[in-house]
Amino acid sequence: MGVGTSRTCPRPLTPDEDYGGSTDEDSPVGGKSIDDDSGCDTEDELKRVQEQHQKKHKAQKKEESDPYAGSTDENTDVEESAGGDVDLAIPELPDLFLGKHFLLYGEFPNGEHRILTRYITAFNGSLEEYMNDAVNYVVTAEEWDDRFDEALMENSNLAFVKPRWVYVCNEKQRMVPHQPYVVVPQL
Question: N or C: which end of the chain has fewer CB within 10 A?
């Protein structure tokens, strides 16, 4: 096979390469040595290696400029099923507040209202929008309020507790006595 008919050489030949060389010996044409056996293959290999090098170089630059380019996969010890689905069993939460009714009263700092709502709901407690006879616990971050006296007149079973009580129940994963966390009237 001649140089111009090689299937491994995808680029067209220049006029110098096609006609400019001597037929008596392999001499450099245009600064390149043409070898009928492996010339185009070698050039293809060089070109491929250069392209790979450029791709790697571009990828490295992209990684340096993109702070999120790193892997976000976490290594876990969870076994995967044959379908590739991760078998994650959601742990059963204790029913700490089952049958208990809560009212969140007053202002709470830094999204604490949302966290309290999540904990109470997660442990099967009921949240009430307004004071009613079903309420057992009034959770408040505020000091004693005169309205608390009125509420106790209506429902003597009410307990006014600090948010810390709900957090401690969550930390210990059990119902702890609420008495150490009671809001009491100021003298």
Answer: C
